[in-house]
Amino acid sequence: MDETTRQATRQWTLAQPAVSAFVASAVRDFRDRDDVLQNVAIAVIESYESYDANSPFVPWAIGIAKRQVGLYLRRRGRDPLVFDDDAVACLALAFDEEAQARSAAFDFLADCIGRLDGRARTLIDLRYRDDRKPAAIASQLDMTPNSVAKALQRIRDQLRECIHQKSFEADIQ
């Protein structure tokens, strides 16, 4: 596999849940949905060389999905429950905005996690980086599983508040 195909595959793997949700919002039949999503995946891989690496991948992939959904809808044009082009464009815009918001939230999350220290950072690293369950963490840190679970909940609340605050500050600017 060449490097371009490898990069395209990596990017597609990360974008696929958002693109799949977009396709599912416009294509109601699950068999057709799978076919459209496969066509999107093929189109993304085939046109990856035209992708500008300086722009976000998910909106670019949703743009390709929008065209594939449009082709599907034109083929199904006589179906009264099919969206028109304007409705699909609105859905694409909404998914693009959501993808950008999630991208920003992930950036904020990384910064908020970076601000954790001491036991909070250790607990988060053990739970999410090392994928350990509370019982395993508890035995390692000489805690009870219940206290680990409660501490993780408090840390998640703290991270959620940090992300919310950063989002609010970003909206003000």
UniProtKB/TrEMBL annotation:
Residues 109-159 form the RNA polymerase sigma factor 70 region 4 type domain. Coiled coil: none annotated. The keyword Transcription applies. Residues 16-78 form the RNA polymerase sigma-70 region domain. GO terms for molecular function: DNA binding; sigma factor activity. Keywords: Sigma factor, Transcription, Transcription regulation. InterPro entries: RNA_pol_sigma-70-like, RNA_pol_sigma-70_dom, RNA_pol_sigma70_ECF_RHOBA, RNA_pol_sigma70_r2, RNA_pol_sigma70_r4_t2, RNA_pol_sigma_r2, RNA_pol_sigma_r3/r4-like, WH-like_DNA-bd_sf. GO terms for biological process: DNA-templated transcription initiation. It holds the Pfam family Sigma70_r2. It comes from the Bacteria. Belongs to the sigma-70 factor family. ECF subfamily. This is RNA polymerase sigma factor. It comes from Neorhodopirellula pilleata.
